[in-house]
Design a protein that fits this description.
The complex is a heterodimer. By secondary structure, chain A is α+β, with helices and mostly antiparallel strands. Helix content of chain A is 18%, strand content 50%. In chain B, strand 2 and strand 3 form a beta hairpin. The chains are: A alpha+beta, B alpha+beta.
Chain lengths: 100, 403
C-alpha cells in the first residue's frame, strides 16, 4: 500500500492560505482529523486506508504519514471513503512525525 | 436498537469471514469501491470477521479474487433472509398469515355480553332487550354503538338511574345502576303484639291505642291501630272521614317463655353390631341379576342403598339399573343415666332453647326452674324466663285492600 505523495510545495501554499483566511486546516488540506473519545473510540477523517490490522494494533495511512493505534481487542467499527472508526481498549496513539 | 441497525435489518446483511495473507488489502479495496464494511474484528493471524450488506455480496466475490483472500458467510441476518426461509416453508407461512387473519376476524365480533350492577332487576331482562336491539354474541363489534345502546336501555327500563356500556375486546360490559326509590308507605300500619304479654308501659307516638297498661294481650292482638275513627272528636263511621296513619310507638310488656322437658333416666338407643351384609342387583330391561341376600338377613338393621340407572328412552323402567344395598345389623341397648347429669343436660337444653327466642334488647327479670313428679310418674322439668321487652310489631295493611 503506497501513501499518495506529499508534495511539499503545494502543501505549503495551501497551508498559508488556510492560515491567512483563518480556515480550519482539515477542510482545505487533506490533513487527517483524529478524534479520540475516552480510550474506547477513535475516528480518523481523511484517511488513506489501512496498512495493518490486528487485534493489538491498527495502522492507518494519512497524508501526513501513518497513524498507529495500539491497544487490546481493537475492532474497526466502520470504514468508508472518508472515515475510519476504531473501537476497543486504546492504549497508545502514535502520530506521524513531520519530516522536518 | 438504533435506526441504522433497523435499516440494516431491513436490507439484510451477512457476517463474512475473510481469510488471507493481507486482509488489509481487502478492507481497502472494499471501501474504495464504495462497499460499506462495519464491525470488523480480528479472529486470528489470517482472518477477520466483518459485516456487509447483502446487496454488496457479488462485489465482494470479485474483490476476494483480486486480493487473493477467501471469504465465507458465517451468518445471514435480516428480512430478505427471513422471507427466503419462509418461502421455503410455505405451509408455515400460510399458517402464520391465516392465524393472524382469523384472529383479527374473530376479534372483530362480540362474543360476550355482561350485565353488572343489577340488584332487583334480573340481568336477563336487559340481555333480552339488547338482543332485540341487535347486541348479542356474534354481532360485529363496530355495529355496537355504546352511546345509543346505553340510551335505549335507559329509556326501556325506568327503574335504572344510569347505564354504562363499555366495549372491551370482544366483551360488551353493561353496567347499570338502579334507582333506589324511597319506600312509599302508602298503607296503614298497625302495631300488634309479638308475644303473649302483660303490658306494663306504652308510649304511643302515632295511632290510636287499643290496650292500656296492665292489660294482658295475646300474640297477634292489635295494640295500636293506624285508623283513627274520630279525629275530630265525634263518632263518624263514614269511611271518607277516617284518618289513616302509620302507627308508631313502643309497647313494653312482660313476657314469659317456658320450656318443659321430661327427665329421662332410661335411654334407649340403637347401636351397630358390626355385622354387615351386602347385596347387589343388576337389571337390564326385564332381566335381573342378583348377588347376595334378597332381603335383610338381620332382625333389626339399617339399610343403605345406592342406585345408578340409565333411563330408557320414553319408558318408565330404566334400561340399565344397578343397585347396591348394604345392611347393617343393629341392636337396641338401654342406658341408665346418672340423675344429676341428665338433669344438667336438660337444663342446658332448656336454657339454650328459651334464650334463642328472646329478642335483643330484652331485659331478663326472672328465671324460674321447677322439677315436679307428674301423674305419669315422670320427672318434669320446667324453665320459665320472664323478660321485659318491646312487644310492638308493625303490621302494614294496604290502603287499597280495604275496599
Amino acid at each position: 500500500m503506497s501513501i499518495s505523495g506529499n508534495k511539499p510545495g503545494s502543501g505549503r501554499a495551501k497551508e498559508r492560505i488556510a492560515e491567512f483566511f483563518e480556515l480550519p486546516r482539515d477542510s482545505i488540506l487533506d490533513v487527517p482529523r483524529i478524534v479520540v473519545i475516552g480510550n474506547a473510540e477513535l475516528s480518523i477523517e481523511n484517511h488513506l486506508g489501512i496498512i495493518e490490522y490486528t487485534s493489538g494494533s491498527v495502522v492507518i495511512a494519512t497524508v501526513k504519514g501513518s497513524v498507529t493505534v495500539r491497544g487490546k481487542d481493537l475492532a474497526i467499527s466502520s470504514i468508508t471513503k472518508t472515515l475510519v472508526g476504531v473501537q476497543g481498549k486504546i492504549e497508545h496513539l502514535d502520530l506521524p512525525v513531520e519530516p522536518r | 436498537m438504533t435506526l441504522r441497525s433497523l435499516w440494516s435489518l431491513l436490507k439484510g446483511y451477512v457476517i463474512i469471514r475473510v481469510t488471507g495473507r493481507a486482509v488489509e488489502d481487502f478492507i481497502n479495496e472494499a471501501y474504495t469501491s464504495g462497499v460499506e464494511l462495519w464491525n470488523l474484528q480480528r479472529i486470528d493471524e489470517r482472518s477477520i470477521l466483518g459485516h456487509i450488506y447483502l446487496q454488496d455480496l457479488p462485489e465482494i466475490g470479485k474483490m476476494l479474487k483480486r486480493t487473493d483472500c477467501t471469504g465465507r458467510i458465517e451468518r445471514k441476518i435480516g428480512l430478505p433472509f427471513l422471507i427466503m426461509k419462509l418461502s421455503r416453508r410455505k405451509g408455515f407461512a400460510i399458517g402464520a398469515i391465516l392465524f393472524s387473519v382469523i384472529l383479527y376476524l374473530l376479534s372483530s365480533f362480540v362474543w360476550f355480553v355482561n350485565v353488572t350492577g343489577c340488584d332487583k332487576m334480573s340481568p336477563d331482562t336487559i340481555l333480552e332487550f339488547i338482543a332485540k336491539q341487535g347486541v348479542k354474541a356474534g354481532v360485529l363489534r363496530r355495529e355496537v354503538d355504546s352511546t345509543s345502546l346505553g340510551r335505549a336501555i335507559l329509556a326501556e327500563f325506568p327503574g335504572l338511574a344510569w347505564v354504562g356500556v363499555h366495549i372491551k375486546g370482544t366483551t360488551v360490559n353493561i353496567e347499570v345502576a338502579e334507582k333506589t326509590l324511597p319506600q312509599a308507605r302508602s298503607g296503614i300500619t298497625h302495631l300488634v303484639a309479638a308475644e303473649d304479654a302483660l303490658v306494663t308501659n306504652m308510649i304511643v307516638l302515632a295511632g290510636e291505642p287499643l290496650v292500656s297498661e296492665g292489660d294482658t294481650v295475646a300474640k297477634g292482638q292489635m295494640l295500636v291501630t293506624g285508623i283513627i275513627i274520630s279525629p275530630y272528636g265525634y263518632e263518624d263511621t263514614d269511611r271518607d272521614k277516617r284518618h289513616v296513619i302509620n302507627a308508631k310507638g313502643v309497647v313494653i310488656g312482660r313476657v314469659w317463655r317456658t320450656y318443659q322437658g321430661v327427665l329421662e333416666l332410661v335411654q334407649e338407643f340403637e347401636t351397630e353390631t358390626g355385622r354387615v351384609e351386602k347385596a347387589g342387583r343388576l337389571s337390564f330391561g326385564p332381566y335381573e341379576l342378583r348377588i347376595g341376600p334378597e332381603s335383610a338377613p338381620f332382625q333389626t338393621y339399617t339399610e343403605d342403598q345406592s342406585v345408578w340407572e340409565v333411563p330408557f328412552l320414553g319408558g318408565t323402567k330404566p334400561l340399565i339399573g344397578l343397585t347396591a344395598t348394604t345392611y347393617r345389623e343393629t341392636e337396641k341397648s338401654v342406658e341408665i343415666a346418672d340423675e344429676e347429669e341428665a338433669l344438667e343436660d336438660l337444663k342446658e337444653e332448656a336454657f339454650a332453647h328459651v334464650k334463642a327466642k328472646i329478642p335483643g334488647g330484652a331485659k331478663i327479670l326472672d328465671e324460674r326452674e321447677e322439677l315436679k313428679y307428674s301423674e305419669e310418674r315422670k320427672w318434669v322439668y320446667t324453665l320459665t324466663i320472664e323478660t321485659l321487652e318491646d312487644i310492638a310489631q308493625e303490621r302494614s295493611e294496604d290502603r287499597e285492600g280495604e275496599h
